[in-house]
Amino acid sequence: VQLVESGGGLVQPGGSLRLSCAGSGFTFSAYSMRWYRQAPGKERELVAYISSLGGTTKYADSVKGRFTISRDNAKNTVYLQMNSLKPEDTAVYYCNTQVAYDYWGQGTQVTVSS
C-alpha cells in the first residue's frame, strides 16, 4: 500500500488549495479514505472522511463549510479542496486508509500566512 500526497504550499489567509492523494497497491475503490493534519506541538487530528464510493462524507467542526473531500476511483485519488483558509489551518496534511492496518502518506505541508 502506498499513499502519495501533493498540492500543499504557502497561501494567504482566505485563499484556497487542493490537496491530492494517489493510492496504489490496494483496491482503492473498496476502502474509505481520510485526511488528517498535524500542527506543530499538537496531536494529529481527523479533518475529513469519505466512504469507499464517495456517498458519505464527514468533517471536523473546524473545517465544516470550508473544506470538501472527494474521490475519483478511476484515478485512485482522493482530494481535499480547502477554501477560506485560516492561519490555524497551517499543518502537515496526511491521507490515510485502513487496509487491515493504518497506512499513511508522507504528508504535505500547508502554510497559511500573510
Number of helices, where a helix is a run of at least 4 consecutive DSSP H or I residues: 0
- Biggest pleated-sheet summary: 7 strands, mixed
Which percent band covers the strand fraction?
A: over 45%
H/E element string? EEEEEEEEEEE
The rounded Rg comes to: 13 Å
Number of strands: 11
Mean pLDDT: 97
The end-to-end span amounts to 37 Å
What does this structure look like?
The chain is mainly β. The protein contains no helices and eleven strands. It has strands at 2-6, 9-11, 17-24, 33-38, 45-50, 57-59, 67-72, 77-82, 91-99, 101-104, 108-112. The strands form two sheets. Strands 2, 4, 5, 6, 9, 10 and 11 form a seven-stranded mixed beta sheet that branches. A four-stranded antiparallel beta sheet has the order 1-3-8-7, with no helix packed on it. The model has no long low-confidence stretch (mean pLDDT 97).
Summarize the SSE layout with pairings.
Elements: E1 2-6, E2 9-11, E3 17-24, E4 33-38, E5 45-50, E6 57-59, E7 67-72, E8 77-82, E9 91-99, E10 101-104, E11 108-112
Parallel strand pairs: 2-11
Antiparallel strand pairs: 1-3, 3-8, 4-5, 4-9, 5-6, 7-8, 9-10, 9-11
